[in-house]
Amino acid sequence: MPLHKGHAESDERPLSVNPFYGEADPVSGMIEAPPKHRLPDGPTPPSAAYQLVHDELMLDGNSRLNLATFVTTWMEPQAGILMAECRDKNMIDKDEYPRTAELERRCVAMLADLWNAPDPSAVVGCSTTGSSEACMLAGMALKRRWAQRNADRYPGARPNLVMGVNVQVCWEKFCNFWEVEARLVPMEGERFHLDPQAAAELCDENTIGVVGILGSTFDGSYEPIADLCAALDALQERTGLDVPVHVDGASGAMIAPFLDEDLVWDFRLARVTSINTSGHKYGLVYPGVGWALWRDKEALPEELVFRVNYLGGDMPTFALNFSRPGAQVVAQYYTLLRLGRSGYRAVQQTTRDVARSMADRVEALGDFRLLTRGDELPVFAFTTAPGVDSYDVFDVSRRLRESGWLVPAYTFPPHREDLSVLRVVCRNGFSEDLADLFLEDLSRLLPELRRQSGPHTRDKSAATGFHH
Ligand SMILES: *Cc1c(COP(=O)(O)O)cnc(C)c1O
């Protein structure tokens, strides 16, 4: 979470209270205005407190118009009811809420099947707060396995993790927090994600694993997981090094099984030892849930698993935190049950169709060059076409905000820092109709942008944020 600073000024204006909200003080008819940065001395009546908080939130953006985030912004009312019913259940109390725990177990089993585990009964897995926690757990398992295998040299040897420079920030966190060297395969020319051969060449006896991303955050492209495994097979033949692969399927692990059934990226590949996904991205659940699965017990060292008995029972758990709401896991089970395979396929196909047609139409405007076309993740990235120099992607992002659209603009990582792009993430609920409105707004802006004498945005980092 953002690291906030405390507030220094002592006397500043309190929250402003609309006279209509007053119901407490019979003399003035007004409730006392609560301070902003100090715990109020006493209570505020619930209706006034509700109105004050509600009003504060009015200027938050409209989540449905947010084309920056991958995270679910719409669920059915029934899912909302179930979540409300479960908001008091603590996921960690497996013994007190055995049925919630059972639904979590069923979700893991369904995902093991969906990701083609050769022996689903051997799979171990758990829910998490999102892919970031899932990646921390998967990375820890890789590191511990490596340490066990290299007990004679570790500590002393410095472990490393190989991955594309396009990895999501959670992998940089993992390497920083757990003191693992990040070995990054750079982008090259028009290749915006990991190259299998280059990844294999970065591996040595201290490599704990290679991360392949199914669905790069930067442009929505799938990394070539099967080729990566083949390159590592060849490496093993040459050198004897046996390097496991973790697939970060935060988005794609809930897209590819439904729309790209012939793509082999999952547990069908013997080298893939673990996979994560974000239930709250294309798993179609509101924020707060992710999943991590390991092929078998060998892939997840037993010594990382904790058993506590002071809540009753003796359920093994693997997690960074302890208490966590059960509602998201229940909502995930609901969605899996509700949609089934063909339902998920229909939803994801619709989303992909919207992304592809939007990408084509953006290209047809003539001012832009597409990097991706929405045919892998339903995400596409584009930049200004050669010869467009009166404005840049940061201007486009800023001007789109005027009509309520949140479309991030950002620069690419090393070797392609010269490249700045806009990225559109299509999600369930972003309809063809909304896409029409978006295209109308974008087309309407172009004549004005073309008349600019040059790009306006000086401070690019402040222009827009890069999300997830
Ligand atoms: C979003 C994302 C993450 C982080 O997932 P959260 O669920 O937001 O914690 C990790 N990896 C990739 C590839 C992502 O797209």
UniProtKB/TrEMBL annotation:
Database matches in InterPro entries: Glutamate_decarboxylase (IPR010107), PyrdxlP-dep_de-COase (IPR002129), PyrdxlP-dep_Trfase (IPR015424), PyrdxlP-dep_Trfase_major (IPR015421)
Gene3D superfamilies per the UniProt record, alphabetical: 3.90.1150.160, 4.10.280.50, Type I PLP-dependent aspartate aminotransferase-like (Major domain)
Biased composition (Basic and acidic residues): 1-14
Keywords: Decarboxylase, Lyase, Pyridoxal phosphate
Cofactor(s) needed by this chain: pyridoxal 5'-phosphate
Chain residue ranges for the region called Disordered: 1-21
Record bears the keyword Lyase: yes
Known EC number: 4.1.1.15
Catalysed reaction, written as an equation: L-glutamate + H(+) = 4-aminobutanoate + CO2
Protein family per UniProt: Belongs to the group II decarboxylase family.
NCBIfam families on file: Glu-decarb-GAD
Name recorded for this polypeptide: Glutamate decarboxylase
